[in-house]
Amino acid sequence: MGHSLNRESSRESHGSDSDSDGPILYTDDDDDDDDENASAESSLASKIRRRDTLAIKLGNRPSKKELEDKNILQRTSEEERQEIRHQIGTKLVRRLSQRPTTEELEQRNILKQKNEEEEQEAKREIKRRLSRKLSLRPTVAELQARRILRFNEYVEVTESPDYDRRADKPWARLTPADKAAIRKELNEFKSTEMEVHEESRQFTSVHRF
């Protein structure tokens, strides 16, 4: 009550001043109250709109029967679900029982329980064993003598251009040294590479120098 009297007295004093000194501009507190009320109404309206949107979405949600018809939800009872879980558990137990043991994994070199020093020692042992086997490897001459390495496997073959040799007589241009080298190579091939029966060996011709 006291506040209202003070306001009225202040208004009267302002009015008297305005009569004497001219018009005075002032602001009213009702404008701020209107802004606050408008903001509260807008927030309330947005909440109502959100609730309406959620209600619409929930209303449009398909029913359980529709989901089952679309095969999204399986039509299983509680007993059927328990049976499916039991089958899955049985399969897992069977798979786990077939899992290889630790010893089998170590033998397959899948599981390693050695430390770094033991691994390095094993690598050095493998290297020594390979070096020993390579040192005992037979030479090319030994392989030829044992007829493991054939003539066509170690002879050097070079590419040559294709051209017509029918009118050419290359043997007419051979020197005596070339002829001797050819005969020697043919004799070595016949004696080491060409399989000849013992009874037919006497008919095998040998080129003489």
Automatic annotation (TrEMBL):
Region of interest: Disordered: 1-86, 98-123
Entry keywords, A to Z: Actin-binding, Repeat
InterPro entries named among the record's database cross-references: RPEL_repeat
Domain of life of the organism encoding this protein: Eukaryota
Acidic residues composition bias: residue spans: 27-38
Protein name: Phosphatase and actin regulator
Biological processes per GO annotation: actin cytoskeleton organization
Molecular function as annotated in GO: actin binding; protein phosphatase inhibitor activity
Native species: Malurus cyaneus samueli
Compositional bias per record (Basic and acidic residues), positions renumbered to this chain: 1-17, 63-86, 101-115
Positions annotated as RPEL repeat: 52-77, 90-115, 128-153
Subunit relationships: Binds PPP1CA and actin.
Pfam families: RPEL
